[in-house]
Design brief:
There is one protein chain. The chain is α/β, with parallel strands linked by helices. It contains 25 helices and 12 strands. The protein has an 8-stranded mixed β-sheet with strand order 9-8-7-6-3-10-11-12, with helices on both faces. Helix 4 runs antiparallel to helix 5. The mean pLDDT is 93.
């Protein structure tokens, strides 16, 4: 056995820690809420411009600024303008030709950030006047969304996935499979993916493209340049098995991306019928198993695209968690399936399946799932900002846990960073907690909004709790630090009390619930302190009433 030098081991640990710190430091977070009609502040602008300058945009002839100069160059740009920034970059060995396009882009963005037409457009819209259209997207991925206050248009579903989205998604799908293999020593046979409408608008279909890659298929365009078909990537080229993919799509996705729903269903059915060895084609393997097990036909066994019943939206898992209306965790997964077990696609005879209840098919498909996954594509909304991530990814993971009799590996991607990052759910919860909930820069930004800001802090904690309820993915220290930061610091508690005693009270209750349900192992003395604070907040609220 090779001897490990203790210094090397120590250095490796220090380096891993360093990488984590840089990751948290570099994480772009919203500092405060957007105020309708108000332009962003100077500090926010620098962070935003740095992110915008960090992305290559081959379609616009724009090269990203190298990582080691971006901060300095953007500060110089904001301080003294384009020419000054170009001179600075020249001193660092970057030619003006190289850097001018990205600085031009920053100029345009800066100009557009100054104008804010939101209020004016709202008033004009209320008068029934024409509002100019503009794309709906993430500002970093597509700065053309500026100026805001336009009539957001979505996307042509026949253009999804775009060539760029499909190309980008290969690396994501590979990293995802690599991560699973590192941890489990083999490929997952089946995965469950969550697909949302707005996300696929923003990225021109990255989530869709990732699903196609996992299946080992690529989109094919027709004579009108519409993506209406798929073809199989030959196994020799793919060099790995085709993964069985169970897709739960949101109601919004189903409504906006009807041709894409058909495309995804078509891809599964195509792969299921390929004459390939079963160990290289898990879709076919599972479909054939199910045909035998249930004595059903191939059409029923190949259903993989699920959503709500027509006209219905959401999983309601978030409401059940927020209102504490559940006793056993498996109820949350069952509710997810009850809401989402409607199949979409087209059978082999060409008959449309439009929201047919398919609970058994969904149960069977989920029972084979070994990993669940969702793509995160914006810095504005993360795992704990809204209750939708845990209702979907948490909901489906809990449903898998009961049906597969084993908790799946749960992953998220971060297609925001320069290089694709796949993280486990636990890693992502830790990162979000450190970058947002427990970060003074974040919570002070929220507290500037007074009443609403405290509600946002409480929401973050409740959304974090949602990850305990659906996936047991929250470390004890997270709840402990939330209590220390917001409730056991007297000055902070006073501020919360003054601004919004209702949310402060809910925060206390949520922490007590986390302990009561077994998600937070903590000393009785801490709980006693929490109960005291809870009682004094109740007294205050009664006094107010
Ligand atoms: C969607 O874009 O599909 C979506 C938006 C909010 C919550 C859930 C889904
Ligand atoms: Mg725990």
């Amino acid at each position: 056995m090779a001897e490990i030098n203790p210094n090397d081991a120590r250095d490796a640990k220090v380096f891993a820690l360093y990488e984590q710190l840089v990751e948290i430091e570099e994480r772009l977070i919203p500092t405060g809420l957007h105020v309708f009609g108000r332009a962003s502040s100077a500090g926010e602008k620098i962070d935003l411009l740095k992110m915008i300058a960090s992305f290559d945009r081959p379609e616009a002839g724009v090269r990203a600024l190298p990582e080691n100069v971006v901060d300095e160059a953007v500060r110089e740009f904001v301080r003294a303008g384009t020419d000054a920034a170009i001179r600075l970059l020249e001193q660092k060995g970057l030619s003006a030709e190289e850097t001018r396009p990205v600085l031009r882009l920053l100029e345009t963005v800066t100009e557009k950030l100054k104008t804010n037409d939101e209020l004016d457009s709202l008033v004009r819209a209320l008068r029934g006047e024409f509002i100019e259209p503009g794309p709906g997207a993430d500002i970093i991925q597509n700065p053309d969304i500026l100026p805001t206050g336009r009539n957001t248009h979505a996307i042509n579903p026949y253009g999804v996935p775009s060539a760029a989205a499909f190309a980008r998604s290969e690396a994501v799908a590979n990293s995802l499979l690599d991560r699973y293999r590192q941890e489990n020593g083999r490929y997952p046979e089946a995965m469950a993916l969550v697909l949302w409408g707005l996300d696929n608008i923003k990225t021109q279909g990255e989530g869709v493209a990732q699903a196609l890659w996992l299946l080992g298929t690529r989109p094919v365009r027709d004579a009108l340049n519409r993506t209406t078909n798929v073809e199989a990537i030959p196994l020799a080229e793919l060099a790995r098995p085709r993964i069985d993919v169970v897709m739960t799509v949101s109601g919004i996705f189903r409504d906006l991306f009807s041709p894409t729903v058909q495309l995804l269903d078509k891809a599964v059915r195509l792969v299921a019928q390929l004459d390939e060895p079963l160990e290289s084609n898990y879709v076919r393997k599972h479909v054939l198993q199910q045909v035998e097990q249930d004595a059903c036909d191939l059409d029923d066994a190949a259903v993989r695209v699920f959503s709500n019943a027509p006209g219905n939206y959401g999983t309601n898992v978030n409401f059940m968690v927020m209102d504490s209306q559940w006793e056993r965790e498996e109820t949350l997964g069952d509710l997810f399936v009850t809401r989402k077990c409607f199949a979409y696609g087209r059978d082999s005879k060409g008959r449309a399946i439009e929201g047919r209840e398919a609970r058994v098919a969904m149960d069977r498909a989920l029972a084979r799932v070994e990993a669940t996954y969702q793509n995160i594509d914006t810095f504005e909304i993360g795992l704990t900002d809204v209750d939708h991530y845990f209702e979907y990814l948490g909901g489906v993971s809990k449903a898998v846990e009961k049906r597969a009799k084993s908790r799946p590996a749960i992953y998220l991607s971060d297609t925001l960073s320069r290089d694709v990052k796949i993280r486990t759910l636990e890693e992502t919860v830790r990162l979000e907690t450190r970058a947002k909930t427990l970060n003074p820069k974040w919570y002070e930004g929220m507290l500037k909004h007074g009443f609403r800001g405290v509600a946002e802090i409480e929401n973050h904690v409740s959304n974090t709790f949602g990850w305990s309820a659906t996936a047991d993915a929250v470390d004890d220290w997270i709840y402990s630090e939330v209590a220390n930061t917001f409730l056991f610091d007297e000055t902070m508690l006073e501020r919360l009390r003054d601004l919004n005693p209702h949310s402060a009270h809910s925060l206390v209750q949520r922490l007590l619930e986390a302990n009561g349900r077994g998600y937070w192992d903590v000393d009785e003395s801490v709980l006693e302190k929490l109960r005291d604070i809870g009682r004094s907040l109740e007294d205050q609220l009664e006094g107010v009433a």
